[in-house]
Write a structure and sequence with these properties.
Elements lengths: L1 H20 L1 H12 L1 H18 L15 H11 L3 H16 L4 H13 L16 H18 L15 H31 L3 H17 L2 H16 L4 H25 L10 H7 L8 H11 L3 H15 L4 H6 L9 H20 L18 H6 L4 H35 L1
Helix pairs in contact: 1-11, 2-5, 2-11, 3-4, 3-11, 5-6, 5-7, 6-7, 6-8, 7-8, 10-11, 10-16, 12-16, 13-14, 13-18, 16-18
């Protein structure tokens, strides 16, 4: 077992360290996290539009409410349909700070380089999650190119020391910034000329869409969950390590669902934050609330029972660290298999519940310490099926964890006898 742990650690630890410590992964992760509040506002605007102004909502009985649907659609557009623009600015700003440049200059530069890649005739429809990969790529590359150019003193415009720093900084960076924008504009022009498509379409068609289709497949979401759980078991923060991979998927899926609902269609993407909260992070990473219940009913180990009692209330709002590090679950051979198996089985259950239409895909996100069950109910728009899903996940996970809790009792008895 020790040899197996060492072998997997050699693979996982460098990967997790890269994802956690690499500056590009850090700024991408932080930028996506900072957009959550806007996505939440936009998703609730969609909900209010459906409840108050749609023909199946309150407007059915009070027709005048239908006239105010544009209030919520405009809020949703501003908060969700401009998601890529927010991400470009946030990445450009943070990366500028890391590179010791003026962050507002790098943020605005990244936005300009991003905009020259888009079709100006349909600009309003290209600022959302469909351009997310392009936004990430352009913002990182533009700031790095600008930072490199700023090292050449001869291309900077020097102003006297008496000129205010705000103005001096602008003139100091104007030539490097101009070169950067021209470079990205040239790339865009060449792509349009030779491929008859805009850069955004090219990136979406050959990079973003295939990645999202793979990641949102049954096999893809299963692999993602296994990677997250393995990182956690080895003592690495799996959610943070995989966030740059998972968050663009969740954001794009949620934004697409909102667009489909606003157009009167069915939401088709299951991989959203609501899916994570319900099917593999319910009651904490690894669905350890089910382990806690199994321990309270079947464990004869007082140390486990005491840790579980102290951890149970945090588990009810999805905080699993006291349990994961208190038992501990990490590097504990007794719980490796169920810690991975319970979420894997649950996401596959969730996949089929969504694919069969029993549970309609989410158009809401609600982050924060919300009690389990209530969070799923809210994020899935008040569907009673979400409560059924929560019960199924908890019960199935208890059945998975219980044999290993009983087996751990026997192992403990043998250890005590040997001592």
């Amino acid at each position: 077992m020790t040899k197996a742990i060492d072998a997997v650690s050699k693979v996982l630890e460098p990967f997790a360290n890269f994802m956690n410590n690499n500056k590009f992964m850090t700024v991408i992760r932080n930028a996506l996290a900072l957009t959550i509040s806007m996505i939440m506002i936009g998703s609730f605007a969609t909900l209010f539009d459906l409840v108050l102004c749609s023909e199946n909502g309150l407007a059915k009985f009070i027709p005048v409410l239908a006239n105010y649907s544009n209030i919520f659609t405009m809020i949703n557009y501003a908060c969700v349909s401009c998601l890529s623009l927010f991400v470009v600015f946030l990445i450009g700003y943070q990366l500028g700070e890391m590179n010791r440049q003026k962050p507002f200059i790098t943020a605005l530069l990244a936005m300009a380089c991003f905009m020259v890649q888009l079709d100006t005739e349909t600009l309003s429809g290209q600022l959302g999650a469909g351009s997310l990969f392009l936004a990430i790529l352009v913002s990182v590359l533009s700031v790095q190119i600008f930072t490199g150019l700023m090292k050449f003193e001869k291309i900077k415009i020097k102003l006297p020391a008496t000129v205010p720093s705000t103005i001096a900084d602008q003139f100091n960076s104007i030539i490097p910034a101009a070169i950067t924008v021209i470079l990205f504009g040239t790339v865009s022009g060449v792509i349009i000329t030779h491929f008859a498509v805009y850069t955004n379409d090219l990136i979406y068609r050959f990079i973003q869409a295939p990645f999202l289709n793979l990641a949102e497949s049954q096999l893809g979401i299963t692999i993602i969950v296994i990677a997250i759980m393995l990182c956690w078991w080895f003592g690495l923060h799996g959610n943070m390590a995989m966030k740059p991979v998972v968050e663009p998927l969740f954001a794009a899926s949620l934004a697409s669902n909102m667009t489909q609902i606003a157009a009167g269609e069915e939401a088709t993407h299951f991989a959203t934050k609501a899916f994570q909260h319900t099917f593999y992070s319910l009651g904490g990473t690894g669905i350890v609330i089910s382990l806690a219940i199994a321990i309270l009913f079947f464990s004869k180990r007082e140390d486990y029972r005491e840790v579980t009692k102290a951890s149970f209330i945090p588990l009810l709002v999805g905080i699993s660290e006291p349990m994961v590090f208190g038992i501990p679950i990490m590097l504990n051979p007794s719980f490796l298999i169920p810690f991975i198996l319970a979420p894997v089985v649950s996401v596959n259950i969730g996949y089929y519940l969504c694919q069969t239409g029993f549970l309609k895909n989410s158009v809401l996100v609600f982050n924060g310490s919300v009690p389990i069950g209530l969070q799923s109910f809210m994020e899935y728009g008040g569907q009673w099926q979400s409560i059924v899903a929560v019960v199924i996940v908890i019960v199935v996970s208890i059945l998975i964890y219980t044999p290993f809790v009983i087996m751990d009792n026997r192992n403990k008895n043998k250890e005590d006898a040997n001592e």
